[in-house]
Specification:
Helix content: 55-70%
Distance between the termini: 55 Å
Structural class: mainly alpha
Shape: flat
Order of helices and strands: HEEHHHHHHHHHHHHHH
Mean pLDDT: 79
Strand content: under 5%
């Protein structure tokens, strides 16, 4: 029995070995100095703000005459200001609507039914980044010349005239839509990757929802941030585009600013500053529309109901 009884292991310390060793000190992580962060942020802010401040001083300060806000007070009465700004905003709204109407159904259909076609759609949508605007406008102007040369006696000739109407040039909307496709695609593709679209569509279809209902009430609310981002970039592109509109002979806001820069330099700089402010304001509105408020406190009724339910269950 003594042989079968397990004995405790010999845990006696060996001779000359110390058992009261102090624990190794724990190294605290080094805190990165915040000075570099402030320096980088300060340099970035100065890079953007110093030119704007210098431009504002140029518009209000006249050497030998002091400070005057005449460049801003005379702006609303300037010839072509309101008409060009309204035209650019209308072109931006039409371009946003057309680009989203083309891109959203196509990307959703590829995501659900044909994932293998995604590289093809990506190449087609990003191709306008390779083509310079001067080449694009050259091709558009060449196509527009076909009207008087080849289609003068056909019903399509009136269509060629309609798309070149100076009050609202549809040809600019088509050109801007092509130019905005890369930005719209990147924004929507990022949103679709973050959402399990096939599962949402299958669940909605099993509940009896139609395809239109699935697109409007299921998919689009989950892509709200992506849609807002695509609208940002398209709006900024249309308001600042000059090459295509100038070479085609139209006069939106960017072309109007350049046209008055030679005769009224201070007013043109003032208009540029105001256009930046208007663009930022519109982008803030779109960003607010593309985000949902989070962290809002729940109503008292729901909290009371949840507490009562928890007490009953317990």
């Amino acid at each position: 029995m003594a042989a079968m009884t397990p004995t405790a292991p010999d845990t006696a310390p060996e001779a000359g070995v110390r058992t009261d060793r102090p624990a190794a000190p724990v190294r605290k992580p080094r805190r990165r100095p915040r000075v570099w962060r402030g320096l980088v942020l300060g340099l970035g802010g100065a890079y953007f703000l110093v030119p704007l401040i210098a431009s504002f001083v140029f518009t209000v300060h006249t050497p030998g005459q002091g400070v005057s806000f005449a460049a801003y007070t005379e702006l609303l009465g300037a010839e072509g200001f309101l008409s060009s700004l309204t035209l650019s905003l209308g072109l931006a709204a039409a371009t946003i609507a057309l680009s989203l109407l083309l891109a959203v159904p196509a990307l959703v259909a590829v995501r659900i039914g044909a994932p293998r076609l995604r590289p093809v759609i990506e190449v087609l949508c990003t191709l306008p980044l390779v083509v310079p605007p001067i080449a694009l406008v050259t091709g558009v102007s060449t196509v527009l010349r076909w009207g008087p040369d080849h289609l003068a006696r056909t019903p399509l000739y009136q269509t060629f005239l309609a798309v070149q109407n100076e009050d609202f040039p549809v040809v600019l909307v088509l050109a801007y839509t092509v130019m905005a496709l890369p930005f719209v695609y990147r924004s929507l593709d990022a949103g679709l990757r973050a959402v399990d679209v096939p599962t949402l569509v299958e669940a909605a279809r099993n509940c009896g929802a139609s395809r239109t209902y699935v697109m409007v009430r299921v998919i689009l609310p989950n892509l709200r941030s992506s849609l807002a981002g695509a609208a940002f970039l398209t709006l900024a592109l249309v308001l600042g585009e000059f090459t295509v509109a100038s070479l085609l002979g139209f006069r939106p806001f960017a072309v109007w600013i350049v046209s008055i820069s030679g005769a009224q330099a201070r007013m043109s700089v003032a208009v540029s500053l105001l256009s930046l402010l208007v663009t930022w304001a519109l982008l803030l509105v779109l960003s607010r529309a593309g985000t949902t408020p989070t962290g809002a406190p729940a109503p008292r009724t729901s909290r009371r109901t949840s507490r009562r339910t928890f007490r009953k269950e317990s």
